[in-house]
Design a protein that fits this description.
This protein has 20 helices and 26 strands. With about 575 residues, the protein is an alpha/beta fold. A ten-stranded mixed sheet has the order 5-6-14-15-4-16-3-17-18-19, with helices on both faces. It has a three-stranded antiparallel sheet with strand order 7-12-13, covered by helices on one side. The model has no long low-confidence stretch (mean pLDDT about 95). Helix 16 links the parallel strand 18 and strand 19. The protein is globular and about 80 Å long. The two termini are about 25 Å apart. Belongs to the formate--tetrahydrofolate ligase family. One of its GO terms (biological process) is tetrahydrofolate interconversion. It comes from Thermacetogenium phaeum (strain ATCC BAA-254 / DSM 26808 / PB).
Length: about 575
């Protein structure tokens, strides 16, 4: 029987469900693993990716299901909850199903958003371990990233203190690093706005090189993006050596390989290629792997986790960050191109609440009461907002996929409102299902599960939006028009100068186009809801990730270090000193 989420908090549901979690021995039997393919780690073991893939390399892949969404309110519309729910629904139908989601960052967990484990009866467990570090991937990435900065600052100090002959005696050559052109900063896995801009090296000549520096949040690190797109350990190792740390005084890139730190960075990250095994409250297996920023990196669970899941499960569910204009677009044109995998179906999550917002409803603010327009029936407001849903359906259809719209049910929704959304979705050429997985778990997701299984029977003529041969500016123009609905693109002089340079250099021919913009609107302006009309996308700059092989055109300002609010989640989190249990997680 499902738990009652109207009377129990998520952490209480998790605590009860964890009492019957499979043991490592039971997981080995349930997943059909060899004993040495499960790496023990308390209640959250890792899967040995290399061993499993070598053994199952000839096994046919299962069905590949992606989860995306309409443009959300700032509260989110339940993609992770739906990811858990569809796994539970397929499990109730007797299917061999599993999935993959990203690891939550300590910044959002301890800030406003809280943990990213889903909710109600569609929740990932063990919730405490999932929310507080898990098996250490983020810690390993933090150490590997900061080691590159240690190498850079030490090298700059030595080059300032020694002449060329003295450097040669120490086995070093002068890199002539430009202290005013350092690309990387340090990382920490918290939202710490006070570290966005710092000065390091204060003191004497033995205290490092005096320079301006900065911190980002760990999940924004290029190393996290690399983990998400790497196909295996060899690919990870190769990408690490191409990370641009700084530039010399002539403008040439200084890489981790130039600093001779790339091998040690890989040593820190060697275990991160093995996904961690968690599960839903109904005990469907779910891998947790990678946690990259969705607005500046790829924002997906890893290629490695998806490759593994497609070998182990008949249905593998993967989640994309943010809405279809960002998450699905990057899944479609970047992740699938890099992995060579082709999806069978995409689930497009929609809520009545978010659609009313797009219809002109009042502003939704985290931490404040929801305006009554969102809790009372208003068909006119809802129908107007369905323009955003139809737009997102059409985005997914451009890939050759016929999406399944999941109407993620809230207790305040009325039957007439849900029927309206379903009708609009079906008229736009999508399947649609109302799902009550938050309230009822797998039993509430049976209609959704049936729609997804039905969709998986269809042949998909999957095709990318653009060929790799297309120049960068043409790609951005196409994405802006076909995905965002813009009339065109306006390039700032700096961005256009960089774009021309990248287009003329064959080195960048196979770099992925990783768009950077707000997730709160189809446009670059977060206050423009629905489907904005008569606007152009401004590109102000282009960031380069040399190891991940990303070119990131920036439509707006994106901070790599979020700030902590005045009422953060950590104020309500504590530990029961008699049992050691964590209380108060979202």
């Amino acid at each position: 029987m499902p738990f009652d989420p109207t009377k129990m908090k998520d952490w209480q549901i998790a605590e009860e469900a964890e009492k019957t979690m499979p043991t490592p021995e039971e997981w080995i039997d349930k997943l059909g693993l060899e004993k040495d393919e499960l790496i023990p780690y308390g209640r959250t073991p890792r899967i040995d990716f290399i061993k499993v893939m070598n053994r199952l390399k000839d096994r046919p892949d299962g069905k590949y299901i992606e989860v995306t969404a309409i443009t959300p309110t700032p509260l989110g519309e339940g993609k992770t909850t739906t990811t858990m729910g569809i796994m539970e629904g397929l499990g109730k139908r007797g299917q061999n199903v599993g999935g993959a989601i990203r690891q939550p960052s300590g910044g959002p967990t301890m800030n406003i958003k809280g943990t990213a484990a889903g909710g109600g009866n569609a929740l990932l467990i063990p919730m405490t371990e999932f929310s507080l570090g898990l098996t250490g991937d983020i810690n390993d990435i933090t150490n590997a990233h900061n080691l590159a900065m240690v190498a850079l600052n030490a090298r700059m100090q030595h080059e300032a203190n020694y002449d060329d002959e003295q450097l040669a005696q120490r086995g070093l050559r002068r890199l002539d690093i430009d202290p005013k052109n350092v690309e990387m900063g340090w990382v920490i896995d918290f939202a710490a706005q006070g570290l966005r801009n710092i000065i390091i090296g204060l003191g004497g000549k033995k205290d490092g090189f005096l320079m301006q520096s900065k911190f980002g949040i760990t999940v924004s690190s290029e190393l996290m993006a690399i983990l998400a797109v790497a196909k295996d350990l060899a690919d990870l190792r190769e990408r690490l050596k191409h990370i641009v740390v700084a530039y010399d005084r002539k403008g040439n890139p200084i890489t981790t390989a130039d600093l001779e730190v790339d091998g040690a960075m890989c040593a820190w990250m060697r275990n991160t290629i093995n996904p961690t095994l968690c599960c839903t409250v109904e005990h469907q297996p779910c891998f947790v792997h990678a946690g990259p920023f969705a607005n500046i990196a790829i924002g997906q669970s890893s290629i490695i986790a998806d490759r593994l899941g497609l070998k182990l499960f008949d249905y593998h569910v993967t989640e994309s960050g943010f809405a279809a204009d960002i998450g699905f677009e990057k899944f479609w044109n970047v992740k699938c191109r890099l992995s060579g995998l082709k999806p069978n179906v995409s689930i497009l999550v929609a809520t009545v609440r978010a659609l009313k917002m797009h219809g002109g409803g009042p502003t939704v603010v985290p931490g404040r009461p929801i305006p009554e327009e969102y809790t009372k029936e208003n068909l006119a407001l809802l129908e107007k907002g369905c323009e955003n849903l139809v737009h997102m359906i059409n985005v997914v259809k451009k890939s050759g996929i016929k999406p399944v719209v999941c109407i993620n049910s809230f207790y305040t929704d009325t039957p007439a409102e849900q029927a309206l959304v379903k009708r609009v979705a079906e008229q736009a050429g999508a399947r649609a299902a109302v799902s009550e997985h938050w309230l009822k778990g797998g039993e509430g997701a049976l209609e959704l599960a049936d729609a997804v299984m039905d969709a998986c029977k269809e042949e998909v003529d999957f095709k990318y939006l653009y060929p790799l041969e297309m120049p960068l500016r043409q790609r951005v123009e196409l994405i802006a028009k076909e995905v965002y609905g813009a009339d065109g693109v306006d390039w700032a002089p700096l961005a256009e100068e960089k774009a021309k340079k990248f287009e003329s250099d064959p080195k960048y021919a196979d770099y992925a186009t990783m768009m950077v913009k707000t997730h709160l609107s189809l446009s670059h302006e977060p206050t423009w809801k629905g489907v904005p009309k008569n606007w152009r996308l401004p590109i102000r700059d282009i960031l380069v990730y040399g190891g991940a092989k990303f070119l990131c055109p920036m439509a707006g300002a994106i901070s790599l270090m979020p700030g902590t609010s005045s009422d953060p989640a950590f104020r309500r989190i504590d530990v029961d000193v008699n049992t050691g249990k964590v209380m108060g997680l979202f």
